[in-house]
Amino acid sequence: MPAKKATTQPIAGKKPASGLTRIYLFLYNLVSLGLWASCTLRTALLIPQHLEQHGSLSAIFAQVFPLLALTQSLAALEIVHSLVGLVRAPVVTTAMQVASRFLVVWGVMFAFHEGSDYVPQGAGIMGAAARDTQYGDYWFLGCMFAWGITECIRYGFFAMQLAGVGVPGFWLWLRYNTFFVLYPVGISSECALMYLGLEPAARYVSEYYQWFLIAMLGVYVPGSYVLYTHMMAQRRKVMRGKSRVE
């Protein structure tokens, strides 16, 4: 699922973050921003290159996924941040949202790409460099851009807050408006990849894993609606406060 709405501000009602905590959170957000920016820009630059040279987008996966896996895995620290009280985000909500990304990255992309140890040659749902672009390749790119743009905005937002430099108005607008487009793109891409993973899950892993993915798809639909409406409510609250200040 798309990323959390708050992960770097001190818990409400508690003392402001100490100097060391602010420095750590600033560096965490800055590193995360750099990694997501690298993932997104690399993907964007590879698309015209591969279309021109190969007429296919299937080989992009192998060139981008290792960095994506590292970048997304780093988000596990956000559960720790919430657990120890460095940020205000609820532990359960944060854990569920991070876990949903982990499921797509490790449980589908890693498990069922061409060349994976879990599927035989020719059975991968994405990343088959010697073949034409598959549906899975398009959905992978959908995840890359929806996640990448969202996370660059989010981590940049928090990095500026923690640095005390103030968040520009246009960045605040991006933070609370781009989800209207990026959220549906991200959710659709994640669900599509899980759907494509159902057949190889049953055939090469276990029918239980297939049913697990089906259950997750069932959770995604109502869960995404709840989160989307929550984000709209947050947007109204922030934009209303901004208007009062102006």
From TrEMBL:
<dbReference type="GO" id="GO:0000324">
    <property type="term" value="C:fungal-type vacuole"/>
</dbReference>
<dbReference type="Pfam" id="PF04387">
    <property type="entry name" value="PTPLA"/>
</dbReference>
<feature type="transmembrane region" description="Helical">
    <location>
        <begin position="208"/>
        <end position="228"/>
    </location>
</feature>
<keyword id="KW-1133">Transmembrane helix</keyword>
<keyword id="KW-0256">Endoplasmic reticulum</keyword>
<dbReference type="GO" id="GO:0042761">
    <property type="term" value="P:very long-chain fatty acid biosynthetic process"/>
</dbReference>
<keyword id="KW-0812">Transmembrane</keyword>
<dbReference type="InterPro" id="IPR007482">
    <property type="entry name" value="Tyr_Pase-like_PTPLA"/>
</dbReference>
<protein>
    <recommendedName>
        <fullName>Very-long-chain (3R)-3-hydroxyacyl-CoA dehydratase</fullName>
        <ecNumber>4.2.1.134</ecNumber>
    </recommendedName>
</protein>
<keyword id="KW-0456">Lyase</keyword>
<dbReference type="GO" id="GO:0030148">
    <property type="term" value="P:sphingolipid biosynthetic process"/>
</dbReference>
<feature type="transmembrane region" description="Helical">
    <location>
        <begin position="178"/>
        <end position="196"/>
    </location>
</feature>
<dbReference type="GO" id="GO:0102158">
    <property type="term" value="F:very-long-chain (3R)-3-hydroxyacyl-CoA dehydratase activity"/>
</dbReference>
<dbReference type="GO" id="GO:0030497">
    <property type="term" value="P:fatty acid elongation"/>
</dbReference>
<feature type="transmembrane region" description="Helical">
    <location>
        <begin position="23"/>
        <end position="45"/>
    </location>
</feature>
<keyword id="KW-0443">Lipid metabolism</keyword>
<dbReference type="GO" id="GO:0007034">
    <property type="term" value="P:vacuolar transport"/>
</dbReference>
<comment type="similarity">
    <text>Belongs to the very long-chain fatty acids dehydratase HACD family.</text>
</comment>
<keyword id="KW-0444">Lipid biosynthesis</keyword>
<feature type="transmembrane region" description="Helical">
    <location>
        <begin position="57"/>
        <end position="77"/>
    </location>
</feature>
<comment type="function">
    <text>Catalyzes the third of the four reactions of the long-chain fatty acids elongation cycle. This endoplasmic reticulum-bound enzymatic process, allows the addition of two carbons to the chain of long- and very long-chain fatty acids/VLCFAs per cycle. This enzyme catalyzes the dehydration of the 3-hydroxyacyl-CoA intermediate into trans-2,3-enoyl-CoA, within each cycle of fatty acid elongation. Thereby, it participates to the production of VLCFAs of different chain lengths that are involved in multiple biological processes as precursors of membrane lipids and lipid mediators.</text>
</comment>
<keyword id="KW-0275">Fatty acid biosynthesis</keyword>
<keyword id="KW-0276">Fatty acid metabolism</keyword>
<feature type="transmembrane region" description="Helical">
    <location>
        <begin position="89"/>
        <end position="112"/>
    </location>
</feature>
<comment type="pathway">
    <text>Lipid metabolism; fatty acid biosynthesis.</text>
</comment>
<dbReference type="GO" id="GO:0005789">
    <property type="term" value="C:endoplasmic reticulum membrane"/>
</dbReference>
<keyword id="KW-0472">Membrane</keyword>
